[in-house]
Amino acid sequence: MFLKAPKRSNCLLGCLSCTTAEKMSHVVKKRKLDKSRQDRLYFDSYTDVTIHEEMIADHVRTNTYRMAIMRNSESIRGKVVLDVGAGTGVLSIFCAQAGAKKVYAVEACSIAEQAVKIVKQNNMEDKIEVIRGTVETVDLPEKVEVIVSEWMGYALLHESMLNSVLYARDKWLQPGGIILPSKAELYIAPISDPVVEDRLHFWYTLKDQYGVDMSCMSDFATRCIMNSDITVNSVTVEDVLSHPARLAELDLHSVTVEELLRSVKGKFRCESFGSAAVNAFCVYFTVTFPCPDKPLVLSTSPFKPETHWKQAVLYLDAPVDVVQDTVVTGEVSMYPSEESARHICIHVDYTIGEHKRQSRTFSIPDWSSEAQP
Amino acid sequence: MFLKAPKRSNCLLGCLSCTTAEKMSHVVKKRKLDKSRQDRLYFDSYTDVTIHEEMIADHVRTNTYRMAIMRNSESIRGKVVLDVGAGTGVLSIFCAQAGAKKVYAVEACSIAEQAVKIVKQNNMEDKIEVIRGTVETVDLPEKVEVIVSEWMGYALLHESMLNSVLYARDKWLQPGGIILPSKAELYIAPISDPVVEDRLHFWYTLKDQYGVDMSCMSDFATRCIMNSDITVNSVTVEDVLSHPARLAELDLHSVTVEELLRSVKGKFRCESFGSAAVNAFCVYFTVTFPCPDKPLVLSTSPFKPETHWKQAVLYLDAPVDVVQDTVVTGEVSMYPSEESARHICIHVDYTIGEHKRQSRTFSIPDWSSEAQP
Question: Which residues form the Protein arginine N-methyltransferase domain (chains A, B) (predicted)?
Fold first, then answer.
């Protein structure tokens, strides 16, 4: 017997799993949290180095932002920039390197203290001003011409940090100013997760191995594993069963906070590549940076190099067999959970081939809001 | 930016990390818990399939118990057995296969419902009686001649489930009865954890990679990574810097709950194999089963095949260089944490070579007790 304990992963990008949380999420009763407590817990979660280490070590993320900022140097040179949720300040430094006249690096969490040191170490105190606070409360001495932010959470909207970017846009961005990135898109595809199949099959292997028939555990295992938690996992190309369908597009220049709160919706239609058992949907996103030549895309697609966002996996109650060209249609809506506005819920209505329409609502087990402050 | 969310690992035995918990443990203020709440949270943590899957999939664990029970069939045949914390009931079935007349499978958690099904599926309802409850409260119709239990937690004593085994021994074991396993031993060795070195070095690599000097982050990273959390990690043989020293031995026939509560203590002395930087201690355990021919040992040593317990890693404040034959001495005491009696604290006083004596107290960030019921 053992009670799971926090363990450090040996693989920064591959293995930051959280099975304790996973398990405890079955234990813990959800409850509403007041906004201030949600925020405190949210910002506190960025006080450890691991999360910043993982984000900066994500080459796809960091390199794409760097390239996007450098390629926009004409729009940034001599301009005033606002970095929303600056963290360690790395994006602010990229902007200063791209010629920004001034960068306001707004960061609510104590990592801002490290950002100050890093700015100093790079001799950019004259160009970059780290401001500790939320973008909703800080007071900037001037309006800005550029907003840069790395605000994307799991399944794009988990954390609802985009709200803060939109707030900053409406309050601080000059007319005609630019936002990096300027567009976000959500995609979905049916997948077959072999790990789940192996885990369910496991209970049938024990009779041969130990002489104990434990196959009756597979029902219980199915209920536990194929639950309505949003699972963040790396989906391999071979497991994607159709061309992904685009669910929704958010134009960061025009989308409103109200639209995000009401819910981000989209219909989809996919056709299966071949015969397989669908046991989940995979949801992922891309964000696009405007560039003088051609737009630059940061993609978290399973068909592209892995990022720390991996993909959001939504399990069906039970696997459904499909053959080539089986049509999978549905509608997805994403909205903030009732327990914590920072946590996303994903509701999926789907029809697979001739099967009757199914519905399921998924959410990310809310660790921060369940901790005892 | 992203707030870590629970993620399912692709590797059941290798990657059950818990970075959310790790991070949140910095956020959450500890507080005392009443015993009943501790117990509820503790038993609730066994309601998910993952934990049972991982334990049964641990071949070293499951095979060693099976062999130990089979080799003790002479002591078990025709006898009455008590399985303390039976879980899915696999050990009870091994005992029935070894010829037990009757097995009382006592399990407090709802997994007991699965144990009932498994017993039925193996046609052993006549031999095995699954009893839902804690061993402290259940009433058995008779005394037993054998107690079997898989009670070991991280660093052996995390969870303090041994207390329940000792309670069962004093209340239900007949004089001259046997306990499987009957002995537990704790070991310690200085190690060099290269993952930590790589993580600290990471901040020096960013200047070349992105043109941003972030080396000043390494102090912050050191404070975050080399903290006083007990980290459960796989220590590779190459990283062990001396012969492990035995800290303590517990004879399950004679040790008392009072002795466990007062603290399990031990002195150690190690001599370094060669030149290296010590940045942690590794603590692990073995348990021994009496067998007619020779005792059978279940070892969680880094020199033996990996188990799901891996090893408990205790980080120093800062690395200390050693050369061949550098003497590392100290004293370790393990005792229940003040916040939750089920959670272990490990206090280490140590002296490395000519360096002055250091002290540090480690604990496993207590997830269950921080969750909101």
Answer: 183-353
**Is the backbone peptide bond immediately before A295 cis, with ω within 30 degrees of 0?**
no
Taking each helix axis from N to C end, the angle separating B35-44 and A19-27, rounded to the nearest 10 degrees, works out to: 120
Stretch(es) of chain B classified as CATH 2.70.160.11: 184-363
Nearest by CB to B210, from A47, A51, A66: name it. Answer: A66
Distance from CA of B340 to the nearest CA of A (A): 13
> The tokens of A279 are what?
């046991």
B217-225 and A111-121 are packed helices; what angle lies between their axes, rounded to 10 degrees? 150
Rounded average pLDDT over B340-361: 94
- Looking at residue B292, the DSSP 8-state letter turns out to be S
Start-end ranges of CATH 3.40.50.150 in chain A?
Answer: 35-182
Active site residue A150: yes
By CB atoms closer than 10 A (0-12, 13-18, 19+), residue A238 is: exposed
Return the beta strands (E) in A231-326 as ranges.
231-233, 245-251, 264-271, 276-289, 296-299, 311-322
The residue in chain A having the minimum alpha-carbon distance to the alpha carbon of residue B57 is: A202
Q: Which residue has the tokens 């590392």?
A: B328
Question: Which one of B150, B306, B339, B370 is the catalytic residue?
Answer: B150
Give the CATH number of domain A35-182; options: 3.40.50.150, 3.40.50.12780, 3.40.50.12160, 3.40.50.720: 3.40.50.150
**Amino acid code (one letter) for A214:** M
Give the helix ranges, DSSP H, for chain A.
19-27, 35-44, 49-57, 59-71, 73-76, 90-97, 111-121, 162-172, 194-201, 206-210, 217-225, 257-262, 367-370
Clarify whether A339 is annotated catalytic.
no
Residues 6+ apart with CB under 8 A from A323: A272, A274, A275
Beta-bridge partners for B151: none
CA distance B5 to B12: 18
> From the centroid of its chain, how far is CA B226?
20
Note the pLDDT tens digit of each residue in B247-273.
Answer: 999 999 999 999 998 889 999 999 999
Within 8 A by CB and 6+ apart from B208, the residues are none
| CB-CB contact of A187 with A244 (8 Å) | yes
Closest-CA residue of chain B to A18? B18
Alpha-carbon distance of A105 to A85, in angstroms, equals 7
CB–CB of B16 and A10 under 8 A?
A: no
Q: What is the mean pLDDT of residues B134-139?
A: 97
Tokens in use for B42?
A: 């503790």
Whether residue A353 contacts residue A327, with contact meaning beta carbons closer than 8 Å, is answered with yes
Burial of A312 (0-12, 13-18, 19+ CB in 10 A): buried
For chain A, residues with pLDDT lower than 50 are: 1-32, 368-373
CA distance A91 to A68: 11
Q: Are B76 and B139 in contact (CB under 8 A)?
A: no
Report yes or no: A122 and A148 within 8 Å, Cβ to Cβ: no
CATH for A184-363?
2.70.160.11
Residue B260, both tokens: 């466990």
Rounded Cα–Cα distance for residues B12 and A201 (Å): 14
User: Parallel, antiparallel, or unpaired for β A327-336 and B144-149?
Assistant: unpaired
pTM tops 0.90: no
CB contact under 8 A, B27 and A42: no
Radius of gyration of chain B (CA): 22
Q: How far is A261 from chain B (nearest CA, A)?
A: 19
State the complex-level ipTM.
Answer: 0.86
Distance of alpha carbon B86 from alpha carbon B168, whole angstroms: 13
- Alpha-carbon distance of A339 to B230, in angstroms, equals 31
Query: How far from B32 is each of A27, A28, B37, B230, B290, CA to CA, in Å?
Result: 19, 18, 10, 19, 39
Contact at CB, A23 and B51, closer than 8 angstroms: yes
